[in-house]
Design brief:
Blueprint (H helix, E strand, L loop, with lengths): L3 E10 L2 E6 L2 E6 L2 H4 L8 E10 L4 E6 L2 H11 L6 H10 L2 H10 L2 H5 L6 H11 L3 H5 L2 H19 L4 H9 L7 H14 L1
Helix pairs in contact: 2-3, 4-8, 8-9, 8-10, 9-10
């Protein structure tokens, strides 16, 4: 398996890039989240990779972080979700946003991604529930998302719109407890 590539970035044609590794050019498909963080042409780049071997092709997928690669591997295990759909999901939302959508069971956030319909979104929520934190190594992040979910639900229960609640939630520092988070979010909403 090819687990990591390090070399010079030769071409950028979204979603595919070409990396020269000591004279060998590797075509790598990357999600847009990784693509936007790539260095300029001719500069050194290092990506974590996943090699998919099919009957008709060997395809290499590249990621800027361990969490992205782990989520990609988790997504392609789901029935009906192939590598292209998984790349589309990673291009449409961050790992943290997807973890939050799964925690809150928000299929509407997933259906905004091109190629994801209502049934696929519901299947993703069902299959990923309880798996993101352990498999992605973001246990602390999931605890924060759980607190974030509780804070968000509290703000919604108080009558704030989803947009207002989400903006206020962004003002809450990571690792805040639920009660402190609600107080900070309400303070941020009072200033707006």
């Amino acid at each position: 398996m090819i687990g990591r590539l390090s070399g010079l970035l030769i071409e950028k044609n979204p979603p595919q890039i070409l990396i020269d590794c000591n004279g060998v050019g590797y075509e790598v498909d990357v999600p847009m989240s990784t693509f936007y963080n790539l260095p300029g042409l001719g500069e050194k780049v290092t990506l974590l990779t996943h090699l998919a071997v099919r009957e008709d092709a060997h395809l290499l997928y590249g990621f800027g972080s361990v969490d992205e690669r782990n989520l990609f591997k988790q997504l392609i295990k789901i029935s009906g979700v192939g590598a292209r759909t998984a790349l589309s999901i990673l291009s449409g939302m961050s790992v943290g946003d997807l973890a939050q959508a799964v925690t809150l069971q928000e299929s509407g956030r997933l259906t905004k991604i091109p190629g994801i319909g209502k049934k696929t979104a519901e299947r993703l929520l069902l299959e990923l529930k309880g798996k993101l934190g352990a498999d992605l190594g973001t246990a602390a992040g999931v605890q924060h998302h759980d607190a974030g979910a509780d804070i968000l639900n509290a703000l919604l229960a108080l009558g704030y719109s989803e947009k207002e609640a989400a903006l206020a939630l962004k003002q809450v520092p990571a690792g805040s407890g639920v009660s402190d988070g609600i107080k900070l979010a309400l303070k941020a909403l009072s200033k707006a």
